[in-house]
Structure to design on (1695 residues):
């Protein structure tokens, strides 16, 4: 089963090193890939484990169900914004306005819902639409006038912050009361529902993987060894099960986590398996080549910025729902830098064309864990800043070092 | 002459900053004809190709496709007209794999519900890509390698194969065999002949006069941004072409060619 | 689907009647020196004194409301039994109070009032009063100098800070209609002294350097910026400038006569009162006596301990700041401030 | 004189379009370059003029000598930091730590001078050395571990901010009294000295230009038409004279302006006319090509980051000298974003390999003018944010549009 | 054989990810000798060149220069040994002008005080660059144009000229004439002959067997990452070389060559 099908059209290149069959072959293949730096997200995950271990040693409540649930709730907003940033980074661009947009969108939602008495759903949609409109505006402006995204979104960072102050006007903070809006971050599902969701995900995933395998086999294309597919699945599904097990021990599966997870999953499918996603990667890899291939580069850019700002708006709304309020400083401070850092730490390249939606999740977990753990240890401000900086540096360095073998082997 | 041309340029000029790259160039190619574009380095051949494929705008002059005036405002327009191009600088996406590059801009979508969202049918694409590359004798370790990891000739082969996807009416090849090995070069020349037989218009740029003489019907020579000569391959001699290219007297050229024959 | 099923998982039940326990002190920022250098040490010392086995969990939110929310959660996870919460944002802290309520942990609203929430106690200075005090001091000084019809410049705090709004309101209630003309008024993003400096420079440019008779600056940082701007523009003599917080640098300026006044909020009694209250709540006692007011926060009348802010000028530095040990004489009188100290009889 | 020398070795390419001789030819050449988008800094300068005009109409004190002197003083600190950012951008990298480094360095200086009683010069040098050491650390870390500069300096942004809080400790703000340190931003030179400086600059410049011309002529190389050299000189020297005329009408030539101008000038000479500068451009243009040419890319990167952080430190010290104090928020807030925006608005590319030190000056003038003008009008906070954003966007768009012709003509 | 070689590789292997690009390759070149490296696309020729010029590290094997073992740890080391290289992907800095690229890494400093700070002597560099390009018949509008604005062949010419700066002992040329025009190709071939006469070791990669036969002394053929054959040019026949390159039987090759001659 693991040997390439005999029907295949092309003889296997003799230079291609193939893993030997059996578990031993798999292990050797793993070691080989390790030495060549082809590890994907493994270094980040190991880094995360180290961070968790250290905090656990320092304070054993760090790994308690309640704290891990808190951690999840703490990262959803930043993670959602970060997922949008991942999209923009795939193009090789940057969005500096994400924080300001998240604040403004939440403010618009709060204004409509609380002060002008619109229903929860219209207010929510208006908030998201604000984000989308801003993103489209940024995208159109930068493609029409050929202004670098950095500058457009920097102007946005200032402008939308002003707009937020303006929208919130003299009252300043607006408290949210609507149960639907509050429920976004405050709802927890019971174990039965949680496990149902898990089962659904696992079944759909396994089914699609095997259907695809069957098709490739029928077409006579080379197959990835079955065992590596299985190992990979065991790990990811195991992580999912572990996470849900933790949640059900505390308050249950948080709706916010479900939303965040769903956004990341959808995004990953979008960029990895659709035409639009393929074109996005192409533009990020070589915009001129994409243009010559007849891809409407400008349209892709506008769409990506619209999506990213919508996601920023969603993040802002989640944050507001958790804080039960919107104020003038919503979305300011380190929201933006954290979101960008999360995407980068998770493994998305700043130079475009390389990355995945999972990096938003992984990076947000790393950054969220550091700040959660240090709050748990209640360190003083100056120490916290310094430790955060140091941990970030070390985490990124482990990741970079592990890729080093690859760089040495690579073209550049 | 250009009355029955598939594609024609009339008095096209192009300026880059302080350099007049093309000066009032006429150009025409018929269906079922292979035109070779020759000229010294910097003569303006690639610029001409880029104008035809719509990636650079013209300063003045007209473009005619099937006798109608068209405005080649972008690569999208050119490919809609059925013009496929292999660029000298290849223009591949280094971060995509071979399949991704071959199908870029014309990805196969899976049937059914997937079609609406643009879900990619990787299996079909991989199958087609494998078949096409085999036909062109391209030897790459796997169609799933990133293009960044390919050798110069392999990249060139991918670029040529790319132009064969879709169903073009006219193919522009800017030094398609420059980096190719013996077998691959032969395949590409064969391919060009097949394209002519299928009634396509082919424009090929090459510095290798042997190749040019073996596939072309007509040779157009450019020099310092101007079209200076046209030859019918059946009647042309290599010396004449070389002298048109270098701008040297015919006698001198014969001399040097003799010396090199040694 | 169940809403907020809270299994009291975070907080240790208050029924635990040991002598020790955990008190969380959650302060809003570290860019102003008072929190790290006064509130925290005084609070911690007092708690240790009253309850040697108690532990203080301290966190600083660096001016970020959602960070503070995470810190609150961390404190509850850590088993805090009383929260002393100085909110970054008075209104949005309600979520944190609600979270503490779920864990049955009492909350003391410290320094800033948490609005629209079920807080147990409130300890503070009256922030609107601070603004009034500043405005009054400026007005009195100008009256004494016979310049009470002149033009003043107002430099408020951060537009995103709710307290800044209260100071602003307090000041305006005195200055509006006093006959003084407001030549220019600014909000200072992030309370940044650099920004205050530039704003003051522009005010001087647009009004003319001899026109300005006084400057209302919301705190000592912005006052410092404004004074630097006027010095650079060659304004001589400097008009009276207000301030707040009794920062060391502010006190020094007051002594050499560059800044007219600062508002001294005796943080030591405030922190100590909070510590006493917190220890009492930790032990399940009902604190008596100290409570001297009720303040409505929009949801309920919160039993409050309100302390009076003090206006400090050159004349009473010795009797307030030095006497309280807020800053030691040698700290104030370092280097070039010796002479000024001598003239104010501070040793 | 304006025709190429006859001795020259290579025949002129017939495709090269040459400007006709005489003034008319110069004007036509200018128009041609205009239509091809080859304008250099002209659009930024025009944008600046428009901004000035608008503020002048709104409040005629905007163009008074005193306000222009203030403007100059307001931009020196940010401009100096921005000059460092230009260097980093030339490499195609980014330095997010510049603000934090400026704050920390100023804090170190203040600590040594005020609290520990060291002299002004040693304290100043220690402040600069702090910056240099941090920059070297960043550079070494990123080259050693191959971590992207974005991540290293992001970690720095946090870490050094923590260090600044730590250094300033419990007292918080530190007032500066030392006359030397205060004098950096508070000294103004009399007209006599100012004009002497101007005369010196003009004479040296004119002399070098003509000596160089003579040498080219002797070597038989083509010469730029004399008239365009002269026109260019008249404009730049005219601007210099005008600036000094304004300064002398008010308090005199500010030492800070001299320092800032000197830094920019030296930097321009460094990057334009030395080996090191050439290598910097090469690394920014194509790091792999530079490596293959035997350039020690890592060493260049470390040096550039060291220089940039030293410049950030210098900026922080200038800011402190102007504020007469250092506090915990020194260097935070929008210092960093303004410095980056200035470099970019001034015309330095974010993608490396293109830019000039003058862009720090021009960009800082644009950004400084906006904020100066709006403070003069005493607009409300929200309006100020929005207007700043809008003006930034428009300024950058004018610049980008003017380059459009060039993009259409260009390769990519 | 490698006893008197200027440079030799012994059993060099190199792996990229899952691709074994080179398997135990031996290689040697003597001073005053031109070695042509031939092979199909992806055979590993460029990889070998990159190893010699120090830009990629080897997995296993030894490198010998003038009989001594050396460690080619970086391009700096190779150029210190006197190895100059023209890469297939050219590796020019697009944002620098022609002069800047030609002198990259070995800029002329002005004499006197300027030397200490590394002040560039642009006049001297421009003069030398102009002379060199003229010698190679390179036609570019101006030596002050940015390399990004040059045509493919012009870029290739610049890369070749670059390798001639400094005083190398050994020159590696990876398809130096691929994009060159007739005159320029002739100049580069002449140049290679001159280099041999000056006693330099030259390694040249080319798919153009005519060029190879006209300049090389020895032909080394690689196939799928292995060295498969070595020919002395005086004795070799084109058919043999082609069959070694493609791995086909000699008879088949003769057949095809005949067909193409038509
Ligand atoms: N950086 C890299 N990463 C992965 N694989 C690589 C890399 N560089 C080269 N390869 C692989 O190594 C093999 C040899 O490549 P190389 O560039 O040496 O070929 P070549 O002989 O120069 O071919 P050409 O004639 O096409 O230039 C190819 O199969 C290529 O895919
Ligand atoms: N983007 C550009 N900007 C400025 N000048 C350019 C640009 N593109 C081409 N040129 C100039 O135009 C002229 C013609 O270039 P082109 O690429 O068409 O030559 P070519 O005939 O393809 O040469 P080769 O055989 O070397 O590929 C050259 O002198 C080149 O310097
Ligand atoms: Mg070309
Ligand atoms: Mg090669």
């Amino acid at each position: 089963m693991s040997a390439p099908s005999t029907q295949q059209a092309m003889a296997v290149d003799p230079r291609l090193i193939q893993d030997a069959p059996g578990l031993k072959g798999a292990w050797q293949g793993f070691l080989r890939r390790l030495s060549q730096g082809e590890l994907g997200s493994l270094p980040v995950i190991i880094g995360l484990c180290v961070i968790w271990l250290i905090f656990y040693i320092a304070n054993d409540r760090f790994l308690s169900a309640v704290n891990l649930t808190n951690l999840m709730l703490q990262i959803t907003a930043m993670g959602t914004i970060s997922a949008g940033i991942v999209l923009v980074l795939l193009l090789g661009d940057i969005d500096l306005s994400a924080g300001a947009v998240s604040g403004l969108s939440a403010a618009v939602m709060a204004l409509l819902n609380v002060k002008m008495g619109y229903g929860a759903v219209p207010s929510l949609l208006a908030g998201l639409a604000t984000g989308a409109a801003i993103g489209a505006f940024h995208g159109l402006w930068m493609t029409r006038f050929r202004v670098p995204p950095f500058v457009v979104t920097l102007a946005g960072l200032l402008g939308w912050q002003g707009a937020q102050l303006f929208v919130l006007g003299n009252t300043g903070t607006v408290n949210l009361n609507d149960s639907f809006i509050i429920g976004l971050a405050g709802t927890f599902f019971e174990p039965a529902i949680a496990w149902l969701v898990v089962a659904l995900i696992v079944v759909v995933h396994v089914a699609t993987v095997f259907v695809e395998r069957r098709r490739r086999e029928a077409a006579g294309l080379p197959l990835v060894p079955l065992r590596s597919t299985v190992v990979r699945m065991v790990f990811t599904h195991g992580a999912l099960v572990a996470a849900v097990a933790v949640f059900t021990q505390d308050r249950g599966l948080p709706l916010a986590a479900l939303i965040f997870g769903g956004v990341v999953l959808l995004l990953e499918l979008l960029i990895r398996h659709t035409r639009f996603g393929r074109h996005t990667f192409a533009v990020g890899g070589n915009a001129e080549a994409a243009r010559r291939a007849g891809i409407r580069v400008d349209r892709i850019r506008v769409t990506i910025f619209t999506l990213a700002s919508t996601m920023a708006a969603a993040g802002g709304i989640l944050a507001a729902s958790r804080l039960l309020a919107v104020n003038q400083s919503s979305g300011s401070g380190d929201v933006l830098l954290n979101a960008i850092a999360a995407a980068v730490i998770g493994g998305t390249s700043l130079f475009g064309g390389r990355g995945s939606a999972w990096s938003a999740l992984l990076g947000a977990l790393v950054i969220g864990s550091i700040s959660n753990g240090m709050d748990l240890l209640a360190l003083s401000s100056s120490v916290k800043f310094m430790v955060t900086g140091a941990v970030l540096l070390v985490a990124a360095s482990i990741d970079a070092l592990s890729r080093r073998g690859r760089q040495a082997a690579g073209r550049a | 002459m250009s009355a029955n041309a598939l594609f024609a340029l009339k008095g096209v000029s192009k300026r880059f900053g302080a350099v007049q790259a093309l000066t009032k160039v006429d150009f025409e190619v018929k269906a079922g004809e292979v035109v070779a574009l020759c000229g010294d380095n910097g003569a303006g051949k690639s610029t001409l190709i880029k104008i035809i494929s719509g990636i650079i705008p013209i300063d003045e002059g007209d473009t005619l496709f099937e006798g109608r005036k068209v405005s080649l405002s972008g690569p999208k327009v050119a490919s809609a007209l059925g013009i496929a191009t292999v660029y000298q600088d290849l223009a591949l996406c280094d971060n995509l794999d071979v399949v991704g590059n071959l199908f870029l801009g014309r990805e196969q979508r899976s049937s059914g519900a997937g079609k609406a969202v643009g879900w990619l049918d990787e299996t079909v694409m991989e199958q087609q890509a494998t078949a096409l590359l085999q036909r062109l004798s391209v030897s790459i370790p796997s169609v799933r390698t990133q293009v960044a990891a390919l050798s110069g000739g392999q990249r060139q082969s991918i670029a040529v194969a790319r132009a064969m996807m879709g169903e073009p009416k006219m193919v522009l090849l800017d030094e398609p065999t420059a980096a190719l090995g013996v077998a691959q070069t032969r395949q590409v020349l064969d391919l060009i002949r097949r394209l002519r037989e299928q009634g396509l218009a082919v424009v090929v740029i090459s510095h290798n006069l042997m190749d040019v003489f073996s596939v072309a019907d007509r040779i157009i020579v450019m020099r310092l941004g101007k079209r200076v000569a046209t030859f019918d391959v059946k009647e042309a001699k290599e010396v004449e072409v070389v002298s048109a290219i270098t701008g040297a007297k015919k006698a001198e050229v014969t001399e040097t060619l003799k010396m090199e024959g040694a | 689907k169940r809403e907020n099923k809270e299994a009291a998982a975070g907080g240790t039940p208050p029924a635990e009647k040991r002598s020790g326990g955990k008190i969380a002190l959650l302060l809003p920022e570290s860019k102003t020196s008072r929190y790290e250098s006064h509130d925290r040490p005084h609070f911690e010392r007092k708690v240790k004194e009253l309850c040697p086995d108690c532990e203080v969990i301290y966190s600083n939110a660096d001016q970020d409301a959602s960070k503070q929310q995470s810190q609150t959660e961390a404190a509850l996870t850590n088993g805090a039994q009383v929260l002393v919460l100085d909110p970054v944002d008075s209104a949005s802290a309600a979520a944190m109070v609600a979270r503490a309520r779920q864990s049955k942990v009492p909350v003391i609203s410290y320094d800033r009032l948490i609005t629209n929430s079920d807080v147990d106690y409130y300890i503070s200075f009256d922030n609107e009063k601070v603004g009034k005090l500043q405005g009054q001091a400026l007005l009195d000084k100008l009256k004494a100098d016979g310049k009470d019809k002149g033009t003043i410049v107002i430099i408020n705090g951060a537009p995103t800070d709710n307290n800044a709004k209260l100071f602003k309101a307090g000041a305006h209630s005195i200055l509006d209609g006093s006959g003084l003309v407001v030549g220019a008024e600014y909000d200072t993003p992030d309370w940044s002294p650099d920004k205050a400096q530039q704003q003051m420079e522009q005010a001087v440019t647009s009004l003319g350097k001899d026109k300005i008779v006084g400057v209302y600056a919301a705190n000592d940082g912005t006052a410092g910026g404004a004074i630097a701007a006027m010095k650079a523009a060659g304004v001589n003599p400097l008009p009276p400038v207000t301030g707040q917080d009794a920062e060391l640098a502010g006190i020094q300026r007051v002594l050499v006569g560059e800044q007219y006044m600062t508002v001294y909020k005796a943080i030591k009694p405030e922190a100590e009162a909070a510590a006493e209250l917190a220890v009492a709540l930790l032990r399940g006692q009902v604190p008596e006596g100290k409570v001297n007011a009720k303040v409505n926060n929009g949801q309920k009348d919160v039993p409050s301990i309100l302390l009076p802010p003090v206006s400090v000028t050159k004349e009473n530095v010795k009797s307030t700041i030095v006497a309280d040990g807020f800053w030691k004489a040698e700290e104030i009188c370092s280097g070039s401030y010796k002479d000024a100290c001598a003239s104010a009889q501070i040793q």
Q: What stands out?
A: Residues 182-197 of chain E form the longest helix (16 residues).
